[in-house]
Amino acid sequence: MASNDLIDILSPNSIAIIGASKNPAKRGYRSLRKLLDDGYAGAIYPINPKESEICGVRCLPDLGSLPGPVDLALVCTPAGTVASVISECAAKGVRGAVVLAGGFGEAGDDGKRLQDAMLAAARAGGVRIIGPNTSGMFNTHKACNLVGFSDLRMGGIGLLSQSGNMALSLVTEAQANGHVGLSTYVGVGNEADIRFDEYLDYFAADSDTKVVIAYVEGVKDGRRFLSALRRISMEKPVVIYKSGRTGAGRISAKSHTGALAGEYAVSEGVLRQAGAILAHRSDEILPIAEALSLLPPLRSRRLAILADGGGHATIAADALSERGLALAALTDETRRRLTAILPAAASVINPVDVAGGTDSDPSLFAACAEILLQDSMVDGLLISGLYGGYALRFSQDLLAAEINATNRIGSMPRRFGKPVIVHSLYSALQADQRPLPLLDVHRAGIPVHSSLEMAVRCMQAMAERVEVGRRAFPLSPPKRAQHGRIFEQVLARCRSECRRVVLEHEGRSSLRDFGLDLAPALLAEDEKEAEEAFLRLGTKPVAMKIVSRDILHKTEAGGVKLDIADVASVQRGFLEIVANAKAAVNNPNVAGVLVTPMAAKGVEVIVGVVRDAAYGAVMMFGLGGVLIEVLRDVAFRALPISRDDAFAMLNEIKAQAVLDGVRGGTPVDRDALADFMVNISDFVEAFPEIEELDLNPVLAYPDGLAVLDVRILLTASFTTRPTETQVIEA
């Protein structure tokens, strides 16, 4: 069944309540009562063999007594009964079932068997399952509330959650907000059948949903989820709060990339790549969704601030800068018009401070807002300060002017096609104490916040949303390069030797064959060959390093010598490197010593790939070198990546000043880095046998780059029989 066919289930015209009850404490009673109280227009069939009617609705003794097919069944019976109930649903042509009970896959082996039996019955009969272990679902536009939440406000925000309590929190916050309305909610539960990605496709097709909120703890099929997220995010905003921010990273990582690829770090990168707007605090979720659902898009990051005090103006400007937003440069005409209506002490250079001009005439707020929004350099407006509370602060005689200003400002987002968000210190009052002008501007569709930082965060989210629409998503893998012959030979050799570690000289030659520009490197099996390699390279000085399947982190094993400039040092260096390796590891398999020209100093970065359990192959970029795991300044994206993705990763790390040239230095060649990252993405996509790839450090220059170290680890299933390998870890 296609995901769009979930419409019949999540927007049902008929509902059977299996396990309906007269006990008000039971879900089988509360759901029936709620459907009746809310005026659900579809057919309702309570099923209980012991009752003739419940809440005035005739009860049926069993599913077989249904008069015909039903869109949705609410299953309120214990876990042990569910498989047989689903079989009965299938026999009557029920399209979908909400399975409330816990005690399934989340409860151990016995629960797993119950879940498997339920799923087998569902698939045999074509019944789709929401849950199990779910809080339920509601659709406000159908008055279909199978959760039991009270006072739901109809609106355009869809909600997916893996936590019933988190859903309750958001619903309660929406009620307190007084303006935000919800469309459809689904508690995804165990995702035994219907997955997160299918729900996203439903919301994409649902005309009643304008914005989607998703509370995500984990996804069962990350690649499908990302694909669905890409599809819907091109049409509708998706706000995601991903929990598990402090989860531990991989325990058995064999590379820097693996060690840094903790679950949240990866999720943050790939979800942003797929178009999600990420909320990093739980109190951001609903405000961001509200702004995205109510306001026209923010065309750029250029904003104007209109404040009635220097303190708020300064704080707002700081908050904008910290969030990557920009103060628009006002035109001369805009400043002239503002000067004409404001006191002499006012500042008309963005941020605009009215300097008390509104204390006696709040209508100036509307006049200034109109002037600012007419400026072609301004794409959004943030109003900050006492707005809405002048009658409370000074005199009730100002109320009429405030209401007039509110009516004018309330229409401006639609008139000018630009978002307006209000920060007012009076918004912190209880709802029944807030001044009327503030309530009116909120009713007009303009978000109002008591926190200036939250108002700015919502503007930032709107800027992120517009940038999603401009992004190029590689929805399908790029064409494989015609190269790769050498790596095929390397794979054959690794398989015959039953090893997962690709030796560095093998990796370097494979990447060169694939079209990447790497410096020459020669393998020497003894000191004589090391001397010959030194002479053949013809460059001084050189670097020498151990090549062994048993030693991945060479420096820690004493397996690296730098700045070798003469034959005697080469011979001595070879012997010392091999001796150090044998001292560090018991009986290591040493293939030899790699001799390569020393590279000029540059900015050390890392480019790596690891296969994440949920999202598949993901790329990491960040500052490299020996401090990579200390600094942890990295960004992640799912493969395949586009050049846009690569540039986004470059721009995402905190140490932008390092890439841009420290103390007057020349910026690194970002184009070369981006092209290199895309080529590495193509290489890994071409060879699914690769589990981890670590290029650290890569030296970035103003006119290119150099790869100093290549580490490739193959998947555990690649070798034909298990082997024990001693690996020196960093």
Task: Describe, in plain words, how this protein is organized in 3D.
This protein has 4 domains: 3-209, NAD(P)-binding Rossmann-like Domain (Rossmann fold); 299-469, Rossmann fold (3-Layer(aba) Sandwich), CATH 3.40.50; 485-597, ATP-grasp fold, A domain (Dna Ligase, domain 1, 2-Layer Sandwich), CATH 3.30.1490.20; 603-714, D-amino Acid Aminotransferase, Chain A, domain 1 (2-Layer Sandwich), CATH 3.30.470. It contains 26 helices and 31 strands. Helices cover 38% and strands 20% of the residues. Helix 4 (109-125) links the parallel strand 6 and strand 7. Helix 3 runs parallel beside helix 4 (109-125), helix 6 (196-205) packs parallel to helix 7 and helix 10 crosses helix 18 (452-469). The strands form 6 sheets. A 7-stranded mixed beta sheet has the order 9-8-11-10-12-13-14, with helices on both faces. It is of the alpha/beta class.
